[in-house]
TrEMBL record:
PANTHER family: MIT DOMAIN-CONTAINING PROTEIN 1. Residues 1-71 form the MIT domain. It comes from Indicator maculatus. This is MITD1 protein. InterPro entries: MIT_dom, MIT_dom_sf, MIT_domain_contain_protein1, MITD1_C, MITD1_C_sf, MITD1_N. Gene3D superfamilies: MITD, C-terminal phospholipase D-like domain, Phosphotransferase system, lactose/cellobiose-type IIA subunit.
Amino acid sequence: AGAETVKRAVELDLASRFQESLVCYQEGIDLLLQVVKATKDQAKKHCYRKKISEYMTRAEDIKKHIEKEKQDGKYHKQIRIEENATGFCYEKLFQEYLTEIVSEVWVEDPYIRHAHQLYNFLRFCEMLVKGPCKVKTIHLLTSYDEGIGRSQQVSGLEEIQQSLRSYGVTLNIAFSSSIHDREIRFNNGWMIKIGRGLDYFKKPQGRFSIGYCDFDLRPCHETTVDIFHTNHTKKM
């Protein structure tokens, strides 16, 4: 298993898919270290250790390369969510980038309108409140519901705003009729663009079906997630 994982790491490395390659290198190295512990043949141990040392050196080089890309504002990682895929709750997508220094978040999403979309945004806010970060301000830019649901949209957002206030978080809400982009930015430099915005989950089969409460078990619509790092996070 270790050899196969490292082989996959090398393939990804050659394809310049460095973030995925780094993960495979790390997993493969851990597996090979377990093999070394269980091997009694000293010659084999020496061989394994030599290869592990080479892989560790390459993994460190990739880490430095990724860090330089972040500093240069050139980092880009893409995740493809397949139709009906599960395991893509908000924590899965965002938690890695919500470091302790995150205090301000920008959300641009034209479709925080209907009830289920308001719940999506609420769940996103809950994740921020629970996370290791110390978020103090959330900026939401969305568009007005053009139908009879506008009053529900506004009252729902105001309720979320009031609830966040009790947790020491300020929610600034702005509306635009021309917004099209969907992106989420953190003030530590991370930017996440999701093709469908926060609304990439499918409607549950019923109120008492698996996946209704736990979004990690909820089937998704097909979409693409692009993750960037920039030292210049723009303001609204």
